[in-house]
């Protein structure tokens, strides 16, 4: 085989890799520059600011948390005792938020078809008649587990933390005199989210836990907005246990609201199945991550997020390129053979 043949074969392989998806973003997928050496402070600043501005899911969720804290959250004195009235208020607020975000995105992308299949990763239709899904429908299945279990566990965790703050069982932060710590903690949450998610995600991908718990979420090999928080109730308990860090790290009712909204609402936005919302062919609001779309297709890669390079550090990173995919297949073959030999 000559040089020309090698080039032709390589080009064909890349086209074949890309053809597995309806849309593929610029590759390779890259993680944050925080831990690259030598450090490039310009890239770090661009990554950090670009995750929030000029418009982003993070900024939108932050503004929703501000409104929720001002108008739809119990007063600290009310939260000192568990009462059905204020817990019910939280539940209704969280139910409406999830229905509006996940439902609104589902309507935009899949009912009104505002973008058609523009920037849609996987153009396969959702299952409408399958015994794999509760009620036979992928969308109804996802809606049920998201709203019935996900919103309930979210609300119970929030109620627990507000009660703990009100009674001094969790350390409090003064938003007036310690506002700079509040800002730093808000910026820290995406990094903590990636770390916590990676750790619990690897845990529930072990064979017994996967079959009994996580397999429910992985019914979705092709995802939509309702897929993000569609999980087994036990997984909801584990996934949202992220908030328990505030028994150690000081917080405020506002920070509790934002932290939980970030973990729940961004689950819907990152599972849209699209790269994001476009206007005149340009991406104006990035949403669904191809990095996690790869996980739903291939299962044993990309357990974490892009904010922290845990998958790169542990050898489970898939950057979307053909070369990375071939390395992933080789790793999986080696793991399978190792289990058979063992």
Description:
A two-stranded antiparallel ribbon has the order 1-2. Helix 5 packs antiparallel against helix 9 and helix 6 crosses helix 9. The protein is built from 12 helices and 2 strands. It has one domain. It is an all-alpha fold. Helix content is 56%, strand content 3%. 35% of the residues are buried. Strand 1 and strand 2 form a beta hairpin.
> What is the number of helical segments per DSSP (H or I, 4+ residues)?
12
The largest beta-sheet arranges its strands as: 1-2
Helical proportion, percent range: 55-70%
Structural class: mainly alpha
**Strand element count:** 2
- Quote the distance from N terminus to C terminus: 39 Å
Shape: globular
Radius of gyration: 21 Å
Uncertain spans, ≥5 residues at pLDDT below 50? Answer: 1-18
Question: What is the beta-strand fraction?
Answer: under 5%
Biggest beta-sheet profile: 2 strands, antiparallel
What is the string of SSEs from the N terminus onward? Answer: HHHHHHHHHEEHHH
Mean pLDDT: 91
The structural domain count equals 1
Give the key terms.
single chain, 342 residues, mainly alpha
Question: Topology, please?
Answer:
Layout: H1 3-19, H2 41-50, H3 57-71, H4 84-111, H5 138-166, H6 179-204, H7 207-212, H8 233-239, H9 253-270, E1 276-279, E2 282-286, H10 290-298, H11 310-314, H12 322-341
Antiparallel strand pairs: 1-2
Helix pairs in contact: 3-9, 4-5, 4-9, 5-9, 6-9
């Amino acid at each position: 085989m000559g040089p020309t043949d090698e080039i032709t074969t390589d080009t064909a392989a890349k086209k074949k890799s890309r053809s597995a998806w309806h849309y593929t973003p610029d590759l390779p997928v890259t993680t944050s520059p925080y831990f690259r050496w030598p450090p490039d402070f310009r890239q770090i600043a661009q990554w950090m600011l670009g995750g929030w501005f000029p418009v982003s899911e993070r900024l939108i969720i932050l503004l929703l948390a501000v409104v929720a804290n001002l108008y739809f959250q119990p007063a600290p004195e009310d939260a000192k005792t568990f009462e059905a009235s204020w817990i019910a208020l939280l539940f209704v607020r969280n139910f409406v938020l999830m229905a509006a975000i996940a439902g609104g995105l589902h309507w935009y992308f899949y009912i009104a078809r505002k973008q058609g299949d523009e920037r849609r990763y996987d153009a396969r239709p959702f299952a409408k008649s399958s015994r794999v899904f509760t009620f036979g429908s992928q969308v109804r299945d996802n809606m049920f587990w998201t709203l019935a279990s996900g919103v309930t566990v979210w609300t119970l965790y929030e109620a627990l933390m507000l009660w703990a703050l009100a009674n001094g069982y969790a350390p409090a932060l003064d938003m007036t005199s310690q506002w700079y710590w509040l800002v730093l903690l808000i910026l820290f949450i995406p990094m903590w989210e990636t770390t916590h998610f990676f750790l619990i995600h690897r845990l529930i991908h072990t064979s017994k836990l996967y079959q009994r718990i996580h397999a429910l979420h992985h019914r979705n090999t092709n995802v939509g907005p309702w897929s993000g928080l569609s999980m087994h109730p036990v997984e909801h308990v584990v996934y949202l246990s992220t908030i328990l860090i505030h028994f150690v790290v000081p917080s405020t009712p506002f920070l509790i609201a934002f932290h939980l909204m970030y973990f729940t609402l961004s689950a819907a936005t990152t599972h849209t199945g699209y790269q994001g919302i476009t206007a005149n062919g340009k991406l104006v609001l990035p949403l669904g991550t191809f990095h996690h779309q790869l996980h739903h297709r291939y299962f044993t890669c990309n357990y974490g997020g892009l904010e922290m390079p845990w998958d790169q550090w542990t050898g489970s990173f898939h950057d979307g390129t053909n070369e990375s995919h071939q390395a992933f297949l080789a790793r999986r073959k080696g793991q399978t053979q190792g289990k058979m030999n063992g």
